[in-house]
Amino acid sequence: MLSISVIVKFFLSLLSDLNILIIFFSLTFKDKYLIVVSTSGSSGMNKQDKSIKYNVKDIFKKVADEKYDLMNDVMSLGAHRLWKKYYVNLIEKLHKSSENILDIASGTGDIFNSLNRTNNLFAIDPIYEMHTLSKKKNSKKLIHYETGFVEKMPYKKNYFQMISCSYGVRNFEDKNKGFKEIARCLKKNGYFLFMEFGTPKRELLIKPFKLYLNDWLPLIGSIVAKDRHSYKYLAESIQKFPSQEVIIRQVESAGLTHQKTIDFLSGSNSIYIFKK
Questions:
Q1: Yes or no: domain 38-202+241-275 corresponds to CATH 3.40.50.150
Q2: Model confidence pLDDT, tens digit, residues 22-35
Q3: How far is residue 165's CA from residue 188's CA, in Å, rounded to a whole number?
Q4: What is the distance, to the nearest Å, from the Cα of residue 61 to the centroid of all Cα atoms in its chain?
Q5: DSSP-derived secondary structure letter, 140
Q6: Rounded to an integer, what distance in angstroms lies between the CA atom of residue 262 and that of residue 19?
Q7: Crossing angle of the two packed helices 228-239 and 56-63, in degrees rounded to 10
Q8: pTM (predicted TM-score)
């Protein structure tokens, strides 16, 4: 475990670049949000992405340990918890507590841990080890776990009133097939919410955002988790994620209607809301 002083010195060294320092603070106080890189989502990909040259399932299996949540805190200075809190609040407003809710790419169970629900909870993730971590975190909640992929889920048609996916859509092996499965499992008038990263819309943010992803993120992974390779994949997968217009069309082509997109930091992170 790294000492606090080592972590502090590391982040101070990152902020030593004057240009990044100015942008970082101006965005923090103007938009009241920090740039966040989270690794909660793993569901979807089960084979090698030929364009990136990574075996995605092996990557998430490798990072499924006690350092997984620590990495999220270190990478975002704890700010990812605020983003997820906002996301969970949206879920609670739209989800009927008496109805079933599914969390895709459930990871270590952060979403259900924060959600004010104790039953009717379903979680699916291709990494069994992630469920093990989630069970420890959510020991007082009744969660039905499945180890599997979004493209072929074991649930009945019209089974869920709410389906959620935080930082996992970019890892779907076949997004079109995955969205169709989500639409199949979702009840009429049910909601599909997902939170995902993308390229900032503001020109001012693009360069520092890419610098963070390509240089800082793998470096942090190598220091804290001793795994540069996995976090390099995460950086590349974020940059390869489709534009908002493209991803919205893909979801709508599966039979869902786009309700709203909530952007943070000019689309660096976004919450998408769809309804059946």
A1: yes
A2: 334 334 334 434 33
A3: 19
A4: 16
A5: T
A6: 27
A7: 130
A8: 0.77
